[in-house]
């Protein structure tokens, strides 16, 4: 598994018994899986009494690293040997690897974690548009300005709906620019 340096550092912190004792390690692993499976606001990693003694910044970094690792393992459908070898490289003891893998097996195998992670945002099925032209406004002043009527057909959570809006040429150009930036960001993130 390819992991960023920050994720590797976070996981090495989790592996370090001086940073996370036996019980705090188990709680962190459990909270990491629960935070991915929860569809509503969980009390959070910082609110766990067993983790109060851990530096809060280290705790946040470690929790982020653990959840990132879990998601990467799920994405690759990693087996025990892949998870074990990756965690061994990050200085995890065999006992901690076994605790982590047991939690992975319980949460992944019985719940299929990918089906429970958050809600999928609506996606656009179809777009229709029409160019209109404002000739006068309510005060009978000449406007002579083009504008677009746009309808987005979106589907989410099993239902379909139309989102309608109007915009000027400048607003449409701004929207297109922002969508291109977003597409580049997604493409860049998927290559990491």
From TrEMBL:
BP GO annotations: sodium ion transport
| Sequence ranges assigned to domain COMM in this UniProt record | 123-190
Sorted alphabetically, which InterPro entries does this protein's record hold? Answer: COMM, COMMD3
Q: Which Pfam families match?
A: COMM_domain, COMM_HN
* Top-rank taxon: Eukaryota
Family note: Belongs to the COMM domain-containing protein 3 family.
Name this polypeptide is given: COMM domain-containing protein 3
Species this chain originates from? Anabas testudineus (Climbing perch)
Q: Which gene encodes it?
A: COMMD3
